[in-house]
Every structure is written in C-alpha cells, then in structure tokens.
Write a structure and sequence with these properties.
Blueprint lengths: L1 E5 L3 H10 L4 E5 L2 H10 L4 E4 L3 E2 L7 E2 L2 H12 L5 E4 L12 E5 L5 H14 L1
Parallel strand pairs: 1-2, 1-3, 3-6, 6-7
Antiparallel strand pairs: 4-5
Helix pairs in contact: 2-3
Length: about 120
C-alpha cells in the first residue's frame, strides 16, 4: 500500500510516517509537489494538512492550500480517501473523498484507529 503525506511541518510528517511503518510513504511539502505526485502515482490514502506553501521554496503560503489540492483531485476525478490532519478547520462538506478530519493534537490511539480504518477500506 502507498500513502501520500502533504504537509510542510517535519514533526507532523514524522508522526504520520512512524504510524505507517511497513507501507510506502511519499511526502509533498507544497501544492506543486502534491499535485505532481497525485497526477503521477496511485495512492491508497492521502494525509492532508490545510496550510502549506504553493511552491517548494516556501513561497505563497496559504492557510487553505489543502482546499486547492481537494479541488484539483475533484477536477481530475481522483477519489483517493483523504484524512485531513490539521490544527485549522475548513469546510470540506462538498468533497466526497474525505475519510476523516483529525486535529493535530489527536492521541496516538485514535490516530492509529483512523489509519487502520483507511487501510481496511482499500
């Protein structure tokens, strides 16, 4: 199984990666790299932060950049399940591929249960 983590904060990427040991994990730290990976790879699940930069150099940070990723996924018909893992809330009710919306301070046990649910859905 293959997963994509879209986040520019190393501590969150490491936390998610540690929970996904044994699986292939790709990461993207910008909108451009995320869209490139989504267009060129098939994923079993995506972990998405809401705020990150548009470009790899860190420029054009947007607190709602995750919505841009979801919009592009919708545009291309990508139905990969997405777990949003963010300290900010955004209205994602119009996206049918949202598997869960988790706060960054979630306890590890609940986080692992969400990952298990995601793995078993695919």
């Amino acid at each position: 199984m293959r997963f994509l983590i879209i986040d520019d904060e190393d501590f969150k990427v490491k936390r998610i990666s540690n929970c996904l040991k044994g699986y292939t994990v790709d990461k993207a730290t910008s909108y451009v790299s995320a869209i490139d990976k989504i267009h060129n790879n098939a994923y079993n699940g995506i972990f998405l932060d809401m705020g990150f930069p548009a470009f790899e150099d860190g420029s054009e940070y947007d607190r709602e950049q995750g919505l841009n990723v979801l919009d592009e996924m919708k545009r291309i018909g990508d139905t990969t399940p997405v777990i949003i893992y963010s300290g900010r809330y955004s209205d994602v009710s119009s996206y049918t591929n949202i598997s869960d919306y988790l706060p960054t301070d979630i306890d590890t046990e609940r986080f692992m249960a969400c990952i298990s649910d995601l793995v078993h859905k695919r």
